[in-house]
TrEMBL record, chain A:
Residues 47-365 form the Glucose/Sorbosone dehydrogenase domain. It comes from the Bacteria. Keywords: Signal. InterPro entries: 6-blade_b-propeller_TolB-like, Glc/Sorbosone_DH, Quinoprot_gluc/sorb_DH_b-prop. The keyword rRNA processing does not apply. Residues 1-19 form the signal peptide. The keyword Transmembrane helix does not apply. It comes from Winogradskyella immobilis. It holds the Pfam family GSDH. This is PQQ-dependent sugar dehydrogenase.
TrEMBL record, chain B:
It comes from Winogradskyella immobilis. Residues 37-125 form the Cytochrome c domain. Keywords: Heme, Iron, Metal-binding. This is Cytochrome c.
């Protein structure tokens, strides 16, 4: 009898131990392409961490280096732009994303995100600014938002910026490493997607404008660290992907006032292999459109709309920092049906965008910016 | 009388040896305590700044992020390792016979934090790499 109990206990312990590391892998696996019908051309060489990039109407590019340099790449030459505000450099924080106003041609506004030490508390947090480019200098620098309080933690500044068809400005701020404090509390910054008017004012119909003590710029919450954000070319909706911990990276379509669950629900586990939540679903919390287990560490995101890649039209691309490839996701009725690895092994992919010329550009750490060119 | 002298000498000798040993033990304990505390702080730094790429057990990611556990690079390149943490590390390095060619950005850590996280890495996952790294040692290392 005693022995029987002992065996039972051992079975129980074994089950528990297994349950700790059991994770449901992504339903669709990433494959290597069967035939490679493209080559790559280096467009901008010798960059370290090209966090953000935009294409200017004159065909030049603005590139943000995480270490705090804004580079204007024109006619094959790099020029450093002066006039940035002070950048807080620590961990994942630095000079981050860059985006042009949808009506840039007329108003000249450039939007950027960066880590800043200004404001309450020791350390830094994510700030959103806008400015104009005059020659090689930024002028009219205005700060539109600064998340607070500051933190010395190195993680999760978020920072992707995108505009929708109505001209609203969206951006992400990650949970700043305070998983159990920030993301589920709408009276606190961090772990959120925000929505502002293009001048930084709060839209009157933001979801929490009438909620006492809420940060009224919040548009959705329960996020971990979104580093990919793109407007869907047809629906105009804002698509976001975010890093999970070990497993549990997600793609979500952002909805007003909705809770995306972090860290109450997650398909991820701690880096150490232990669990922080038992559940992956809960009423009142959104399920992701797709989740990655194992994590690819996604950064940068774009939809392919151009005719240059007929086989890829309508597909979503996401950069993988961890596995050094660009992931091509084929979607059907908002479900991922196929995943393919492009540019595998060329470098950590920090960003991927379709340029106004229709070509796909990928920013690779330690390499630079490359362009995907289909074989003739 | 001669016997008494011998006994005295031997006794004094023993006492000296014992005192000396106690001294050594105390010294080691103090050093050890300083190291242990540094390692403990280093664990927090690691969990904040390093774990996303080099992972929980210092195993790294195949072809992308070199391992820190049982890494010959760390063992034999103490100064370059500290320099890498302080100023970033770019270009080719060979770790355990495998070439990595990437970029590690400087993390904006203080010299004290770099010393702590080096001590954590040098004494974790089976690593036992060298003497304690101090804040002063990190401060002296220039670009």
């Amino acid at each position: 009898m005693k022995q029987y109990k002992l065996i039972l206990a051992m079975c129980f312990i074994t089950t528990l131990a297994c349950a700790q590391v059991q994770q449901k892998e992504s339903s669709v696996k990433a494959e290597a392409p069967t035939t490679i019908n493209y080559t790559t051309e280096v467009v901008v060489s010798e960059l370290n961490i090209p966090w953000g990039m935009v294409f200017m109407p004159d065909g030049s590019m603005l590139i943000t280096e995480k270490t705090g340099e804004l580079i204007h790449f024109k006619d094959g030459k790099k020029t450093e732009i002066q006039g940035l505000p002070e950048i807080y450099l620590r961990g994942q924080g630095g000079l981050l994303d860059i985006e042009l106003h949808p009506d840039y041609a007329n108003n000249g506004w450039i939007y950027m995100s960066h880590a800043s030490a200004d404001g309450e508390g020791d350390g830094g947090n994510t700030a959103i600014i806008r400015a104009k480019l005059n020659g090689n200098t930024l002028t009219d620098v205005e700060r539109l938002y600064k998340a607070g309080p500051n933190s010395r933690r190195g993680q999760h500044f978020g920072s992707r910026i995108e505009f929708d068809d109505d001209g609203y400005l969206y951006f992400s701020v990650g949970d700043r490493g305070s998983r159990d404090v920030n993301p589920q509390d709408i009276t606190k910054d961090c772990g959120k997607i925000y929505r502002l008017n293009d001048d930084g004012s709060i839209p009157k119909d933001n979801p929490f404008v009438d909620t006492p003590n809420a940060k009224t710029a919040i548009y959705s919450y329960g996020h971990r660290n979104p580093q990919g954000m793109v407007k869907h070319p047809e629906t105009g909706k804002i698509w976001v992907h975010e890093h999970g911990p070990r497993g549990g990276d997600e793609i979500n379509i952002i909805q007003k006032g909705k809770n995306f669950g972090w860290p109450v629900i997650s398909y991820g586990i701690n880096y150490s292999g232990t669990i922080f939540t038992e559940i992956t679903e809960k009423k009142g919390m959104q399920q992701p459109l797709f989740y990655w287990v194992p994590s690819i560490a996604p950064s940068g995101m774009t939809f392919i709309t151009s005719d240059i890649y007929p086989d890829w039209k309508g597909n979503l691309l996401a950069g993988s920092l961890k596995f050094e490839y660009v992931e091509r996701l084929v979607l059907k009725d908002n479900k991922v049906v196929k995943r393919e690895k492009l540019l595998e092994g060329m470098g950590r992919v920090r960003n991927v965008r379709q340029g106004p010329d229709g070509y796909i550009y990928a920013a690779l750490e330690g390499v630079g910016i490359v362009k995907i060119v289909p074989n003739k | 009388m001669k016997l008494l002298s011998y006994i005295t000498i031997i006794t004094v000798g023993f006492i000296l040896i014992i005192v000396n040993q106690t001294d050594v033990t105390n010294y080691n304990t103090v050093q050890d305590k300083v190291l242990q505390e540094s390692i403990k702080r280093g664990n927090d730094v690691y969990a904040d700044f390093c774990i996303t790429c080099h992972l929980d057990s210092g195993e790294g990611v195949k072809n992308t992020f070199p391992p820190l556990a049982n890494s010959d690079y760390l063992k034999t390149n103490r100064e370059s390792s500290i320099k890498g943490l302080k100023y970033g590390l770019k270009g080719k390095i060979t770790v355990n016979g495998k070439v990595y060619n990437s970029y590690m950005a400087p993390q904006g850590l203080g010299n004290d934090e770099i010393a702590d996280v080096m001590n954590y890495i040098n004494h974790s996952w089976g690593n036992t790499y060298g003497e304690i790294v101090t804040e002063e040692e990190v401060a002296k290392i220039k670009k």
